[in-house]
Amino acid sequence: MMKISADEAREQAWGRQSQLTKPPGSLGELENIAVELAGIQRTNEPVVRPAGCIIFAANHPVVANCPEVSAFPMEVTSAMVANFEAGGAASSVLCAHHGMPQVVVDVGVSIDVDGVGDLRDGKAMSMELCRQSIAAGEAAVRDMVAHSDGLKLLILGEMGIGNTTVAAALTGAVLGESAARVTGRGTGVADPSYIVKLAAVRQALENVDATSAETMLASVGGREVAAMVGAMIAAAELEIPVLVDGYIVTSAALVAVEMHASVRDVLLFAHQSREQGHQLALKSLSANALLDMNLALGEASGALVAYPMLEQACILHNKMATFEAAGIVKE
């Protein structure tokens, strides 16, 4: 497939859409997806195979110190890493169904590490550890590219008990929003625990170092979130589209775009979760999420549910007949 400029690719893609045997706009968002992918890949034949999924896993001292912020104990993170590797997690099942490799990267399941702290104190991780995590994310993408036959789409996910608390604090910091506006119930904390979670996010926002996107990430982020920031930066450099999952991955996108504006050009957004902060983050990124299905699982599951839409958008764009080829006179 011939490489052309992003603008030229989009122009040609819209031109082809106007010639396909259908009323203009009748395939709705599928048309927009095809055009966006054409622009990112700089081609007149966008494709999303081969695709790959990377899950970054980490734990958070805020859960150890304040277990009420999550409906599940911190030990579930390591158990879920094993579940991914055994193929039993929701995203593992979907990856297998799609014939897509899933790589799980432990960037911080252990919290007994120098430089790791409680986000409530604005000291989630040292700057050195933050940058190491970003670099780990970049390396994971480059490794997946090296072991694929021309990676065409990257799907990112995460595993980390308590990381909706992280996402809320990070989103609040980047957007300048209050804790109440960005904090939801995650995987289902009850009212008493929600009050504790809200207080934790409020304290984090009081102590965050808001000097830059990177300092905010180090202050109130997580190592898996930092790794996803790095993964997005690498994907943008390699002109690989990224299908963004839910709230936690979107919080990483906020930071990545603040650090490198060009990252926004390669992002597509799979779904709008039930987290209120996610909706604010999507709006800030001018993102049109493909699905709204009340999802709250994470681990790239929403992106993997949306993946067939991207595949079908490309197939329709590339394979449908034009009016001329079908011998139909357009009036």
Task: Explain the overall architecture.
Helices cover 53% and strands 8% of the residues. It is of the alpha/beta class. The chain has a single domain, classed as Rossmann fold, CATH 3.40.50. Strands 2-1-3-4-5 form a 5-stranded parallel sheet, with helices on both faces. Helix 7 crosses helix 13. The protein is elongated. The model has no long low-confidence stretch (mean pLDDT 97).
Question: Which secondary structure elements does this structure contain, and how are they paired or packed?
Answer:
Elements: H1 6-19, H2 29-41, E1 51-58, H3 61-65, H4 76-86, H5 90-98, E2 102-108, H6 127-146, E3 153-159, H7 163-175, H8 179-182, H9 191-207, H10 213-220, H11 223-237, E4 242-244, H12 247-259, E5 267-269, H13 276-284, H14 301-319, H15 323-326
Parallel strand pairs: 1-2, 1-3, 3-4, 4-5
Helix pairs in contact: 1-2, 2-14, 5-14, 6-11, 7-9, 7-10, 7-12, 7-13, 10-12, 11-12, 12-13
In brief:
53% of the residues lie in helices and 8% in strands. The protein has 15 helices and 5 strands.
Keywords:
331 residues, alpha/beta, Rossmann fold, 5 strands
Number of E strands: 5
**Coarse morphology:** elongated
Helix content: 40-55%
CATH uppermost class: Alpha Beta
CATH H-level name... which superfamily? Nicotinate-nucleotide-dimethylbenzimidazole phosphoribosyltransferase (CobT), large domain
Strand content: 5-15%
Organism: Persicirhabdus sediminis
Keywords: Cobalamin biosynthesis, Glycosyltransferase, Transferase
Catalytic activity: 5,6-dimethylbenzimidazole + nicotinate beta-D-ribonucleotide = alpha-ribazole 5'-phosphate + nicotinate + H(+)
EC number: 2.4.2.21
